[in-house]
Amino acid sequence: MTHNWPWVALALLGAYHGLNPAMGWLFALALGLQEKRRSAVIGALLPIALGHAAAITVAILALRFVQHFLPVNILKWGVALILFTLGVYRLFRANHPRGAGMRVGGRDLFVWSFLMASAHGAGLMLLPVLMAQPMSVMTHSMAGGMPLTPLSLSAPSLSATTIGLAVLIHTASMLAVAGVLAVVFFETYEKVGLRLLRHTWLNFDLLWAIALLVAGCLVLFF
Q1: Is the separation of the CB atoms in 90 and 205 below 8 Å?
Q2: In total, how many domains does the chain have?
């Protein structure tokens, strides 16, 4: 069970990303309300999820690339530094990338989601989980290598299977939470309007910045 916690963590991070309106569910809701169709909400969610998955994949592949050149300790400090820098930046500046307007298609939604997830460091938040020892041991075992020891100078490169499962689990969780939120708010809009959003709104920019700082700490301990 202790070796399965990275998969649970990836799913929980996906749920957290889906909960954040900046990751797309609020955009999907706005498009649905504009066209007055639930199908518009659902139709917007898939390209948004694919753009998010692409941003996650790019971050993971970048990690896989640098694993060939850097010792694991230096790599961990590098990732922690990037997470801390992005977290501090998000604390003081919350501007979002600008792109397509409300008249958008699937490709526009994909690009918008990719840029939004990249700008928020969504992929970077997964790196502490993927660099954790249970994930490294599992990847090493898949490759048929000898067991890792604390004296290992470098971590094994993430396998294509591990990357695929990580992206799939994270994105599926993100899509499920975002989809439920978007559809529920769409269905209740005529009764309560946006009053619920106004009264229950959280400062997700602050919460996101704190999450990045926490991830920076975690990457040094696992």
Answers
A1: yes
A2: 1
